Amino acid sequence: MLPLLAIPYGISVIEKHITLDRALKHEDYEAALGIAEFARFTELVRLAEGVIGSGTISALTPAELKYRRVSRKRAVARRSLAKGTVIATNDITFKRSDHGLDASEATLLIGRTLKCDVSLDDGLDLSKII
Description:
Layout: H1 35-52, H2 62-71, E1 73-77, E2 92-96
Antiparallel strand pairs: 1-2
């Protein structure tokens, strides 16, 4: 089964010896596969090829794009915050949300003042700060 490890590296040919009867001890019988073993080996090769895929990245479907948007962590209020609050690091947490800045942009909120009340878990973005 060791040749299976070469599949991710782009091999295109696998040489495998087959024996009908190991008891005959023909040349290379130790490394040869029986008929049932060869059938299983072929199944594993096809499975490995399917798992690896084509190597190309296709465009995301609309459903995948939607999931990507909601699965990313967004900046949300860790607690209810009143209008006029200067946002501190401990006022922000990150959760899956449709609203709020991406985690990589959250530093834009620190030290800025809220222009409206914000409830627990409300998304925090630039539209809510002065």
